[in-house]
Write a structure and sequence with these properties.
- The protein is built from 19 helices and 24 strands.
- It is of the alpha+beta class.
- Strands 8-3-2-12-11-1-24 form a seven-stranded antiparallel β-sheet, covered by helices on one side. Strands 9-10-17-18-22-23 form a six-stranded antiparallel β-sheet.
- The longest helix has 21 residues.
């Protein structure tokens, strides 16, 4: 068995220094030595250094991209619990280097049988505050990521399932140093103290554990050992499933009913990919229950009708066009997208070139559209839901992009929803609060919301794992990000950075953000010089920090290069550079 490389608290803190939120540095950053590196055979871009190291070890030992993703996810359950873990869900897209096929895997959580369409309404019939909804048992969906990863491994794994858990098991037993980012989030979260088990793990008495503290998690080590030895069935039945059900049912805050039957019934699913052209490329993403693939594809398809490449990536004209395209995409998202097993989503119609050509005529290159934007009428659509969209929320989640020596690549976004999920810890891992991604209002003006709550239903997601193919149908790029509904804008911006402006992967990840989620045009602080021009075009502009976590891999003529978002703590690693 391979020994997992050890990091001292000092060395890991040095590695993470400079990787927190903030604008790109003006001088070379010695803590990010991969920038400009090209890898010959395989590369990983993962949201935490220890998870990236585990993924790379699997690739170095002959594993494939799916093996690496599983190893990274198990480590992230330990070292980045505020963002993702086995108590949550995710979407994985895989490119097959031999057949050039795209496969997508759905590991989104499901609502238990006890879920009701009015579960997030108050006594007056209005939506309860999001800050109250996220906490405790009521918000927990049946976790999906373990079953999904097992399905992908059965299809494409090269290394033994149990082998992939060893780095995380060892780190959980030996301990790891709390990063600066995790320490800040522990200290800043006002809900963790409300859950006794969770508080005992993250706090010393009343004091949040500081950065550099060596954190051990023997309970998680035991849990991962059971899953490693017995497979995903051990997670969805028996003692582990019973412990999850009891944690939800007996939660200190907002207890709800989740049964062993809810958990054992969970199924991961393969879904049709959503693919659409942009310039000479084919951009593929995840279909419903994710809205990400559709919204990214619509944004790019609309922008195909404008000479975006002739503008600068931070010019007011480019920012205006991106914001207007996203306004149209978010209008359709609100109107049509939900779990395709429960509602008829006109996915093909929404990315139909003729439909997008007509919608693009609504975009004035010189002036912002006035007022609220109505959804369009894509081919195959039923009556649109014209009510307000869901709360624009969420700063958690994690992403990884991986390319292996066999020509395969994956783009994998994974989440427990908001930071630390429902704050319920069971057997060493946190449970998600994914049910708050449902529409709180089940209907509007007498029409049902496509994303209304229902038993067994999967809430709509904004996760946008993306793979881009070149004109020959070969792998070009894998990219994605955390960030709630902003994920769509983050991902589209990075794809445009490479395909429209010929930036390298790191340059595309570093671009300051602009987006419009159906309201104001949001710009990152670095775009302040363009604000006056945007306002002159009629945009309502909001300025603020946008904590994306983009992780990308790009294939070039010389090999593989990567990008990792300087706003978080991700890294790129590979087989040795040229």
């Amino acid at each position: 068995m391979q020994r997992f490389p050890r990091f001292s608290a000092f060395s890991l803190m040095f590695l993470l220094a400079g990787c927190v939120a903030g604008p790109p540095p003006t001088a070379p950053d010695p803590t990010r030595p991969w920038i400009g590196e090209t890898y010959r055979s395989h590369a990983v871009s993962v949201s935490h250094p220890l998870a990236a190291r585990a993924a790379l070890d699997m690739l170095n030992d002959g594993g494939g991209a799916v093996d690496a993703a599983i190893a990274a996810q198990m480590v992230m359950t330990l070292v980045e619990p505020q963002s993702s873990g086995i108590g949550g869900g995710g979407f994985l897209i895989r490119f097959d280097g031999r057949t050039s096929r795209i496969e997508t895997y759905d590991g989104r959580e499901t609502a238990p049988a006890s879920a009701r369409q009015d579960m997030f309404l108050d006594a007056r019939g209005g939506p309860i505050p999001y800050r109250d909804a996220i906490l405790g048992g009521r918000a927990v969906g049946v976790p999906g990521v373990v079953r999904m990863l097992e399905m992908a491994h059965k299809d494409h794994g090269r290394l033994p399932w149990a082998r992939l858990f060893q780095p995380a098991i060892r780190l959980a037993r030996d301990g790891f140093p709390i990063s600066e980012r995790l320490a800040r989030q522990i200290a800043g979260d006002r809900h963790l103290r409300k859950m006794p088990v969770t508080k005992a793990y993250f706090f010393d008495g009343e004091a949040p554990k500081p950065a550099g503290t060596i954190l051990n998690n023997p309970d998680l080590a035991d849990t991962l050992s059971i899953i490693a030895e017995q497979g995903a069935d051990a997670f969805y039945s028996g003692d582990l499933a019973r412990a999850m059900a009891e944690a939800v049912t007996n939660a200190p805050v907002h207890p709800a009913v989740m049964t062993l039957a809810d958990i054992s019934a969970y199924q991961a699913k393969k879904r049709p990919a959503v693919c659409a052209p942009y310039r000479d490329y084919k951009v593929c993403g995840m279909g419903p229950p994710s809205s990400g693939g559709l919204a990214v594809a619509q944004t790019l398809g609309l922008l195909n009708h404008f000479p975006l490449a002739a503008t600068g990536p931070v010019s007011a004209r480019a920012l205006h066009l991106i914001a207007e395209a996203e306004r149209l995409a978010f209008a359709d998202r609100a109107a049509y997208v939900g779990d395709g097993d429960f509602v008829a989503v006109p996915a093909q119609g929404m990315v139909d070139p003729g439909y997008l050509a007509e919608r693009a005529k609504l975009i004035d290159p010189h002036k912002a559209m006035d007022g609220l934007i109505d959804p369009g009428h894509p081919p195959g659509a039923e009556a649109a839901y014209l009510g307000p969209d869901d709360p624009l929320k969420g700063l958690s989640t994690a992403h990884m992009s991986i390319a292996d020596r066999f020509g395969n690549a994956i783009s994998f976004t994974t989440t427990v929803e908001s930071a630390f999920g429902a704050r319920l810890m069971v057997r060493g891992f946190l449970l998600n609060n994914e049910l708050t991604d449902f529409s709180f209002r089940p209907e509007w003006r007498g029409k049902p919301a496509p994303n209304r709550v229902a038993p067994g239903k999967r809430p709509r997601s904004s996760m946008s794992p993306t793979i881009v193919l070149d004109r020959d149908g070969q792998f070009k790029m894998a990219v994605g990000s955390p960030g709630g509904s902003r994920i769509i804008g983050y991902t589209a911006r990075a794809v445009l950075g490479v395909l429209a402006w010929n930036l390298d992967m790191q340059g595309a990840v570093d671009l300051p953000h602009v987006m419009n989620r159906g309201g104001a045009t949001e710009v990152e602080e670095d775009l302040i010089p363009a604000i006056a021009d945007l306002k002159a075009m009629g945009h309502q502009v909001e300025v603020g920090r946008m904590i994306s976590g983009l992780q990308g891999i790009l294939r070039t003529r010389d090999g593989l290069t990567g990008g990792a978002d300087r706003r978080r703590e991700g890294v790129v690693m590979g087989d040795g550079g040229r």
